[in-house]
């Protein structure tokens, strides 16, 4: 709830801001303000306590904003509410009654089939529970985000952190939706921060130092400002009928004393002022000034500020309106999120959130490294290749890369856009099996792996040089095969002209032989290719008498130029 109409009244002092202003500093987070906002997106699931991850959307909402702050190099300090303040019991009961009425209305709309109207009532009925806070704490711990559970009001704990220097663990500002932070005396408060980091900022020092600004607070100090807020109505004490924020500001500006204002109110309002209003007002002002907070250095409770003279002499029981005192061990257990501050029972230490953290998107290099294709090396260079099968990877040294890669123009352009140029000194290739691909192309030339026998001619030299470059997952590589045909006579090879006869002839790759479903190899002269895991061998034979190709081959083979 906060202070009724305070932000509207202070609008001239509120300026637009981007959270980047606080880069490099520590900023406090009023956790329940973000939890309430996040709960709106899954209010029906939370109210009905359904199973599934949808009801954890409030955590996603919260962590998205935490990530936003971290993006701008801001250290978030999350502060959660603890136990209930005794003087806030009446307000809490009234809120619970309203939530119950809204829940009943939501269920009625749900039975009627009007889901849209039901969701609106569920949003009014939803409340942040200790269980929800505990779920958030588990995520904060896993993400190494600093947090603290206040013994009572998170606002008071945030005000305490705001009073400390940054070097002592203090904070430079507070992000909240609750105007109570101003009554507690927080120096800088940011309201209505959206998911882009834009919000509204109010700095108390500028309020007290402004000269020509209206409304004027020139003669105010923090104590008078807090008294004005209490007179206007707050969670600890409702206002006297007819006294709002403007009237409260006028009383404090004119009389400059809380006691004199109370005297005037009794005179002007008469019976409208409750008999115990004076005591209740002084207690409410004291809560904003002296509430109990957790000192994380001493690991025990302390007051927000040193007690005034009229409170020092009160007994421990009489000071419970500031928050009952707790032993250091209990206070520390609450602050660390190990004990429920409402029931004082320990949380299940093994309970974890059902929310799974989002996996970071891998970089393109990581995707490339995880690709699956196989390079078949030369049979004569097998000894130079060290296959590291235990690691699932094969490292190919610089001696294996024999030539520069060759591409078609469109392949080269795509390669330059998507991948860095290959490193000839070191390549890491996955040897895992690729995903199976259907081999049902009816137009594909089917070749047998029959050997072509050569009776009169021996194959002196076979060299296969290749490089493979491709995308991360599906790679089609073109290979170039060079065969030494120095001993083959002219009857085997159809020559275009006698001037072009040389000892070595290059055979350009044209027929595709699929290897492992990803890497393709092409050849023109060779009848078939028989891939193996560690070597690539081609055996050819020639029938001298028949002077023709094996009859088992497809008739389509006759249409290929020799």
Explain what you see.
One of its GO terms (biological process) is DNA repair. Putative 5'->3' double-stranded DNA exonuclease which may also contain a cryptic 3'->5' double-stranded DNA exonuclease activity. May be involved in DNA mismatch repair (MMR). Keywords: DNA damage, DNA excision, DNA repair, DNA-binding, Excision nuclease, Exonuclease, Hydrolase, Magnesium, Metal-binding, Nuclease, Nucleus. Residues 1-102 form the XPG N-terminal domain. It is found in: Nucleus. With 562 residues, the protein is an alpha+beta fold. It has two domains: 15-335, Rossmann fold (3-Layer(aba) Sandwich); 359-562, no CATH class. Helices cover 32% and strands 14% of the residues. The chain contains 18 helices and 19 strands. The chain has helices at 6-9, 31-39, 43-48, 57-71, 89-112, 115-125, 130-142, 154-163, 180-184, 204-209, 222-232, 245-255, 258-269, 277-290, 309-312, 328-335, 364-369, 409-418; strands at 15-18, 26-30, 75-80, 146-149, 173-175, 188-191, 198-203, 292-295, 300-303, 386-388, 393-396, 427-430, 461-465, 480-484, 505-507, 511-515, 519-523, 530-531, 536-537. The strands form six sheets. A seven-stranded mixed β-sheet has the order 1-7-6-5-2-3-4, with helices on both faces. The chain has a three-stranded antiparallel β-sheet with strand order 10-11-12, with no helix packed on it. A hairpin with a 4-residue loop joins strand 10 and strand 11 (393-396). The protein is globular, with a radius of gyration of 39 Å.
């Amino acid at each position: 709830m906060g202070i009724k109409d305070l932000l509207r009244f202070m609008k001239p002092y509120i300026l637009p801001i981007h959270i980047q202003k606080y880069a490099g500093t520590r900023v406090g987070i009023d956790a329940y303000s973000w939890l309430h906002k996040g709960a709106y997106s899954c209010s029906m699931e939370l109210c009905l306590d359904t199973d599934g991850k949808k009801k954890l959307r409030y955590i996603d909402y919260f962590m998205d904003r935490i990530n936003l702050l971290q993006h701008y190099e801001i250290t978030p300090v999350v502060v959660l509410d603890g136990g209930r303040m005794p003087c806030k019991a009446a307000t809490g009961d009234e809120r619970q009654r309203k939530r119950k009425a809204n829940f009943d209305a939501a269920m009625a709309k749900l039975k009627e089939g009007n889901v849209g109207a039901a969701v609106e009532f569920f949003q009014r009925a939803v409340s942040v529970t200790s269980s929800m806070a505990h779920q958030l704490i588990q995520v904060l711990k896993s993400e190494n985000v600093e947090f603290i559970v206040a013994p009572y009001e998170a606002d008071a704990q945030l005000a305490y952190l705001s009073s400390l220097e940054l070097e002592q663990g203090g904070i430079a500002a507070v992000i909240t939706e609750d105007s109570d932070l101003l009554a507690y005396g927080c120096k800088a408060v940011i309201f209505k921060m959206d998911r882009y980091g834009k919000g509204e900022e109010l700095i108390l020092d500028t309020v007290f130092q402004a000269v020509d600004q209206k409304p004027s607070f020139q003669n105010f100090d923090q104590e008078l400002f807090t008294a004005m807020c209490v007179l206007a109505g707050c969670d600890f004490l409702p206002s006297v009928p007819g006294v709002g924020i403007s009237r409260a500001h006028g009383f404090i500006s004119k009389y400059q004393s809380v006691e004199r204002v109370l005297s005037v109110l009794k005179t002007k309002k008469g019976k409208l002022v409750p008999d115990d209003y004076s005591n209740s007002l002084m207690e409410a002002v004291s809560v904003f000034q002296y509430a109990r907070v957790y000192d994380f250095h001493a690991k025990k409770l302390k007051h927000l500020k040193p007690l005034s003279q009229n409170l020092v002499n009160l007994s421990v029981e009489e000071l419970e309106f500031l928050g009952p005192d707790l032993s250091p061990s209990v206070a520390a257990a609450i602050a660390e999120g190990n004990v429920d501050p409402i029931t004082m029972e320990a949380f299940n230490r093994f309970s974890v959130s059902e929310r799974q953290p989002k996996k970071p998107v891998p970089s393109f290099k990581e995707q490339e490294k995880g690709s699956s294709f196989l390079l078949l090396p030369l049979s004569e260079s097998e000894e130079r290749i060290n296959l590291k099968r235990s690691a699932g990877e094969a490292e190919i040294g610089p001696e294996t890369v024999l030539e520069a890669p060759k591409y078609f123009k469109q392949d080269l352009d795509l390669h330059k856009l998507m991948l860095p140029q290959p490193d000839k000194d070191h390549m890491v290739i996955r040897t895992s099996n690729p995903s199976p691909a259907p081999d049902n192309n009816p137009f594909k030339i089917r070749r047998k792996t029959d050997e072509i026998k050569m009776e009169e001619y021996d194959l002196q030299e076979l060299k296969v040089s290749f490089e493979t470059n491709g995308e991360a997952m599906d790679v089609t590589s073109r290979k170039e095969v060079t065969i030494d045909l120095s001993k083959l006579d002219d009857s085997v090879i159809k020559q275009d002209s006698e001037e072009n006869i040389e000892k070595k002839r290059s055979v350009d790759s044209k027929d595709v032989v699929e290897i492992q479903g990803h890497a393709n190899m092409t050849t023109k002269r060779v009848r078939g290719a028989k891939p193996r895991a560690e070597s690539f061998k081609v055996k050819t034979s020639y029938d001298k008498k028949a002077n023709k190709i094996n009859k088992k081959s497809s008739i389509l083979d006759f249409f290929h130029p020799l």
